[in-house]
Amino acid sequence: MQTEKPKRPEPLDIREKGTPIDGEPQYSDRRLYFQLHVFSHCYHPEVFIQHIQHSNYSPPAAVFYDDLNNPTGFGVLLIAMDAASLMEQSLVLKDMQRKFDREISYRPEMTMIGRTYSSGREPDLEEWLINKPIRNVFNPDFPWAIWYPLRRKPEFYQLEPRDRNKILGEHAMLGRNYAAGGYASDIRLACFGLDTNDNEFLIGLVGPDLYPLSRLIQDMRKTKQTTKYIESLGPFFIGKVREQWGSESFLEK
């Protein structure tokens, strides 16, 4: 008796997907990578900003934050379209450390990384993956930022999709209410397999004042997702923008 040959698996489609428009699906291979590097023992931040901007490895887009919890600390947020470009940009920080080794120290435990992603329900995929996160990060009216990673408990992924969506919806509604009031906007990034501590998501909250960002995190502590399904949160980096440049390098594309 002749046995049937096993069927070859269908090729995987790992493109980002959005809501179909007029019956046509949205796909994209474009996404952004964000990486935050944190330093301490900096007494002349303006010197380091100039070095970053004029280095041979100067990143096309970056944000320089003063660190709220460290008077000699700062953070540098790098942004790139792919991981290789991100690594190349980070050479400016390596070069900076070499030149100013006695003045600054790197805090690797505070390094955070993530990529933009889609859920499949986005009405404008390019807006969600590229334009919205760039506008939020570089909004001149939003100088305050809180960045933190998180990891969910494994039980969350065993829930039925309907139950997961309901739990996530509660969280999302809080975010939309704060955004509608002009108090906060967010940058939601995935970091599965990218984070050294096995975190799954990186969240950036930005706004005109620090208190609403803190209050939003406080309100989110009461949601079902946080109380039942969050394994870990943090560390938290709280920064205020000192300098930023290069948003147009992404929005023009």
Account of the protein in words:
- This protein is globular.
- The chain is built from 8 helices and 12 strands.
- The strands form 2 sheets. Strands 3, 4, 5, 6, 7, 8, 9, 10, 11 and 12 form a 10-stranded antiparallel beta sheet that branches.
- α5 runs antiparallel to α6 (210-220).
- It has helices spanning 45-54, 83-89, 91-99, 125-138, 161-180, 210-220, 224-229, 248-251; strands at 16-21, 24-28, 33-40, 62-67, 74-80, 105-106, 112-115, 144-152, 185-190, 201-207, 230-233, 237-245.
- It is of the alpha+beta class and 253 residues long.
Report the strand count.
12
Structural class from helices and strands? alpha+beta
Give the amount of beta strand, in percent: 25-35%
Mean residue pLDDT:
91
Give the termini distance in whole angstroms.
59 Å
Q: What kind of assembly state do the chains in view correspond to?
A: single chain
Could you state the order of secondary-structure elements as H and E? Answer: EEEHEEHHEEHEHEEHHEEH
Number of helices: 8
Low-pLDDT stretches are: none
Helix content: 25-40%
